[in-house]
Amino acid sequence: FFEQQLLQRQIEAVILFGDCRPIHATARRIALKHNIAVFVFEEGYVRPNFVTLERFGVNNHSLLPRDPDFYLQNVPVPQQHEQELGYSFHMILLWGFLYYTTAIALQPFFRQYRHHRPLQLSEGKVWLRSFGRKLYYRHKEKGVLAHLTGPLSKSFYLVPLQVYNDSQILTHSNFKTVKAFIKYVAQSFAAHAPSHTHLVFKHHPMDRGYHDYHQLISKLGKQFGIAGRLHYIHDQHLPSLLTHAIGTIVVNSTVGFSSLYHNTPVKACGMAVYDIKGLTYQGSLHTFWHAAPDFQINRRLFTRFRNYMILTTQLNGSFYKRFKTPHGRYHISYNKNLPEGLKVHPSAIIEKPCTPPPATIDP
Questions:
Q1: Contact assessment for residue 176 and residue 182, using Cβ atoms and an 8 Å cutoff
Q2: pTM to 2 decimals?
Q3: Maximum CA pair distance of the chain?
């Protein structure tokens, strides 16, 4: 049906939000088969002030060059305009509530529609459970951040967990579940990490209502003999954790890129757009435990890669919150500074510099 519509209506471009959900993956494959342009929006590679827009695909489907020499030998890209969005999580919750409430209410009128997540009233219980757990762990974990950034500073490895159904894990890694990743990291830590170090798993805030890994992590601590060195935390200040960690272990979360920003070594266990020689540790996880303290991130490469990535794949803004500009209130603003002589990859989202006010997009 979709292929027939593309051809009959002479569609010139297909626009998606994410490219790994089954319906999106099929649409992307069919469109590319007929040489129809595909544009994919996604949450920002650089958080929290950007969203992603790429041609062909995002994350591991991205055509961003992975060769460090492409950036080191290219014309340097200046730092791009970046307007601060401020706190936006409350807007994510608001729009999520409105979206699911409307979808559930109208479900009887669209019986053939299939959502990628359950559209049931039980989802409301998940949100209530998430709020309850937030309050519970806020009380339980008082003093945890001070302990990690004080006595345990540079004595722990941080493992930011991803949402249980994140397509980044399901599609762009060899792990079938977050639980499998937790076990893999804990087992490697027990066997190979220095005996004085600690391992800290941080729960993803958007997964709080769906899963709680306390029992699993406690079980693994006892099983591998590291109960006193294994920690499970929730809503602690992420930049502080990254700054005080020895290293960061991710599947392919964008937190890994934030860790590089804070000059903390990263081991990506899945396929990540920033997993480039000179940026991330390229050896095995088993050797990362001892190698992390001496691993040097190539800061010149990081700056060039970050600025180029923002120029060619990122848009300053948010899907959920508007920000003020001299020209009005917008969700997304396009204001790029393209240097002369810059070599760009074929799928780059760029326009020639212009003197009028920047173009804006208000979805």
A1: no
A2: 0.90
A3: 66
- Tens-digit pLDDT profile for the chain (363 aa)? 899 999 999 999 999 999 999 899 999 999 999 999 999 999 999 988 999 999 999 999 999 999 999 999 999 999 988 888 877 878 888 888 888 888 888 988 998 888 777 777 677 788 889 999 999 999 999 999 999 999 999 999 999 999 999 989 999 999 999 999 999 999 999 999 999 999 999 999 999 999 999 999 999 999 999 999 999 999 999 999 999 999 999 999 999 999 999 999 999 999 999 999 999 999 999 999 999 999 999 999 999 999 999 999 999 999 998 877 766 777 787 778 789 999 999 889 876 443 333 444 433
Cβ burial of 363 (10 Å; 0-12, 13-18, 19+) is exposed
- According to CATH, where is 3.40.50 located in the chain? 110-302
Structural fold of domain 110-302? Rossmann fold (3.40.50)
